[in-house]
Amino acid sequence: MLRFILRLFFLVLLALPNPLRAQPTPLTPAQYQEDFDYFWTTVDENYCYFDKKQTDWARVRTLYAAQLPGVSTWAQFVRLLENALNELYDNHASLWTNLPDSRRLLPSGADAWVQFQQGKAVVVAVRAGFGAERVGLRPGMELLAVNDVPVEQALRPLLGRSLKTVDEAAREVALNQVLAGTHNQTRKLTVRAQGKKRDLYPDQPTAQLENIRYAGLLESRQIGTVGYIRINNSLGNNALMAAFDSALTRLSATTGLVLDLRETPGGGNTTVARALMGRLITREQPYQRHEQPAEVRNFGVRRSWVELVSPRPESYTRPVVVLVGRWTSSMGEGITIGLESMGRATIVGTEMARLNGSIMSYRLPHSGFGFNIPTERLYRVDGLPREDFVPAERPEPAAPAGTDAALEKALRLLQAPTKP
After folding, report:
1. In this protein, which residues make up the domain named Tail specific protease (predicted)?
2. I need a surface site. Which of 69, 255, 309, 332 has the fewest CB within 10 A?
3. What is the tens place of the pLDDT at every residue in 377-394?
4. How far apart are CA 186 and CA 205, in angstroms?
């Protein structure tokens, strides 16, 4: 079991799901049916956010079971499962397998984020160091079309067929799926900026989102008297614990610490998270609350508990600022609310990925395809849902181009004598 869990953490860490590999023989119609029944029932019994959704899950069974007689290949079955899971419009629910023309996962496979504002698709965040930023996409621009298809038209096929009402949350997920694109197609983004239309090509000369590489598990340096540690999407890698310990030891004489979690879109595991937090506290404290709704649904008995984090040797006791943003997701969000709940850090940034709860992984009995769904709700210790947390300290919205407004604010809060 432990080996399976460790393997799962590695898979969750990856920015993209594994592509569908060649399979020996297709399943029989009965096996496709049994796999689909297992999938539908597992979601029905364990998914814990139906109350937030407009999804009619019983109708999902009817709609997609009706398509099973036409399924004769692995690829067709993957597409059916993708479409069925997309009915939840939940970025924390995903398959482990994808096709070349599958949509990239959100937020790990996205380099910008868009929201509808007064009927317009407005860019609200751009991922630092990736194609969208490189070609000039900036917050405040209006997204008009992707690959020459107007956004309103492009998002319609991605809206669930079972929805009782198409709510704003479903539209936002579909909109960002359009923006992120598919694994095998380069994107042309048509935007309006300062009254003028522009075409941007974030995947030229290469599709950077298909080949994400980092210099290391983390980066660290000293800025004046302040230490700085940036986590490079490695919260699911147990080797990060030793790397973090080493970096923090080198920075032990600093007057404050900036912990940058803005590039942690791939999630992680609680062992690594508690190890990092444990170096920043001096006594055992609660850092988040769990709730498992399935037990209430099945037995009428409420199950909830508070998770603790314990201090580790050589605690760093100076002030800490945590930087977060749209690509701070899942375990990164957990560390954020944990350090804030424990009164151990000031949080600076924008809203995070707002991923729902904690996921559990399952595997279909015949195809072997794996999938993840949220099965536990997560809260700050005081009861605030993790996905609703927004930092009180925000970066300067009108910061000059080329400056890191969030880092600059963190340094001011820590009273650093010099700028980076």
Report:
1. 188-387
2. 69
3. 999 999 999 999 999 999
4. 10
